[in-house]
Structure formats: structure tokens, C-alpha cells
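Researcher: Sequence recovery benchmark, item below. Answer with residues only.
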């Protein structure tokens, strides 16, 4: 008899007690099943993180459309209002999708992530007043993340305070922060910021 019949429907390993004769002891059989389930859990987490990232990309695209020159090029105010309404409709629909992948953190990792977010929030706030300085700061943060890979060729030294904070974060958080910074750098590239 299957103890977990719903696993069979999902093509996952099942625990079948009818197999009385087996070359492996019960503990080993259970560990084998748990290993397979754990691998599926990790795949589920990666899939959910991918969906979360895709949603963020879609929201960023909608923001870019809303602030694009195309909107200003529309002939009439009525066309603009119609387009804004369409954007809001798609935005509302996108917001109906929710995925949450919880990352376990100890208090020190929570504090480090809080510091990293404060650094990035300050960078985003400074973007409006001085985009050139914000871009340079973003490069210094990205270079601080380069402890896992080769440093970028931006010529901007890594921010040591940011590096200290990011090193205290979980690996999942480090990857997310790096993607967030890359997204900001891509945004700067689209803005065509020229140093004077």
C-alpha cells in the first residue's frame, strides 16, 4: 500500500510497504526517497525564484513603457490616457502572481542584508540628483560582489563597507543583490549617462 499516494500522481518516488523483500534496509530505502524528494524541493525553489525574477523583469518593463518617450509621442491626451489605462490593467494582472521563496537567515545575516539594502536604497535616491555619481557607486558595489567572480573592468574600486556587508549575507541573498545591481547598471546604460 502506498503511504503517500499523491506522490505517485506527481511522478515522485513513493513508499511502497508491499516490497517486503529488498536488498536495502528500511532506513536506506527511506533515505533514498528523501534524497529524491529533496532534489525536487531544490528544483521547486529554483523554479519559484525564476518566476519571481521574471515578474520583476515584467514590472520593470511596464515601468519603462510608462516612462518612455513613446508615451510622450502619442498625439492626443486621450491616447495617452488609454495607454496608461492599458498599462495599469497589465500591471494589476501581473501583481496577481505571487511567489515567495523564504531564505533562512540568522540575526547577523538579517542585519547584513538590511545594511546592503540601505546602501542600494541610498544609491537609488541619489540617482535623480547625480546619476553619474550613482552609476560610479553602483559599479563600486558590483565590484564588491566580485569576490565570487572576476572583477569588472570599470576601473572603479570596490566599496569596502558594502563588501563587508554583502559577505555577511546568505549565498541566496548575495546572488539576488548582484542581479539587482546588474539591473541598475543596465538601467544606467539605457539612460546613456555621460561623464563630464
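Model:
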Amino acid at each position: 500500500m502506498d503511504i503517500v499516494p499523491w506522490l505517485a500522481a506527481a511522478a515522485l518516488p513513493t513508499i511502497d510497504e508491499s516490497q517486503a523483500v529488498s536488498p536495502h534496509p528500511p532506513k536506506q530505502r527511506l533515505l533514498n526517497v528523501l534524497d529524491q524528494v529533496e532534489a525536487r524541493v531544490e528544483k521547486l525553489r529554483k523554479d519559484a525564484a525564476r518566476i519571481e525574477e521574471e515578474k520583476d523583469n515584467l514590472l520593470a518593463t511596464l515601468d519603462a513603457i510608462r516612462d518612455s518617450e513613446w508615451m510622450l509621442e502619442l498625439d492626443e491626451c486621450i491616447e495617452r490616457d488609454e495607454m496608461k489605462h492599458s498599462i495599469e490593467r497589465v500591471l494589476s494582472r501581473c501583481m496577481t502572481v505571487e511567489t515567495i521563496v523564504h531564505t533562512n537567515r540568522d540575526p547577523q545575516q538579517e542585519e547584513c542584508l538590511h545594511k546592503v539594502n540601505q546602501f542600494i536604497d541610498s544609491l537609488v535616491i541619489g540617482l535623480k540628483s547625480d546619476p553619474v555619481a550613482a552609476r560610479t557607486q553602483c559599479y563600486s558595489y558590483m565590484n564588491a560582489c566580485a569576490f565570487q567572480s572576476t572583477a569588472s573592468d570599470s576601473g572603479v574600486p570596490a566599496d569596502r563597507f558594502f563588501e563587508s556587508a554583502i559577505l555577511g549575507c546568505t549565498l541566496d541573498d548575495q546572488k539576488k543583490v548582484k542581479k539587482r545591481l546588474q539591473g541598475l547598471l543596465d538601467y544606467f546604460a539605457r539612460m546613456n549617462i555621460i561623464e563630464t
